[in-house]
Amino acid sequence: MTPAATWCQGQTNTCRVLCNADASVNECTESDLKWKCTCTSNSSTPGIQYYRQTMPFYICQEVFKKCIAQNAGNAQGQDTCNNNIQPLCATNDPPKSPVADSGSDGSSSTGTTGASQPSKTSGGSTQVTSTSSKGLAGPTLAPVGNGAFVAAMGLMAYLL
Question: Where is the composition biased (Low complexity) (predicted)?
Fold first, then answer.
């Protein structure tokens, strides 16, 4: 199996798990490493960039390896790679299996222990906050965004 095939397989496997085995789009092209992952439940992309075995992870690792190789014999240059690129690469393993749905319709209800309580504000009014969910895109470790990936690509371009 070629590295590109391995990368695409990891990407599509992780997309499937993060979308709870229900992705409306789960594609990866070996020739150009382009990928798409969209969960059916909310038509959004899960936080792919926070997990290993995804295209952003593989590309970030490759950028890091190239930086280290380009700075062979240069401790300061390699320190820059270690401090500025490696931290941008995902460190979390994807879940081993899709997250189980806790309800038949994807909704959940909470009792008194999990309900939001009103809080006083300085103006004397009461503010009530509550949240509900109906089938999200799966577990993510931070808000969805491509900042780390974009930063790594920008740094690679700068180093070249």
Answer: 100-135
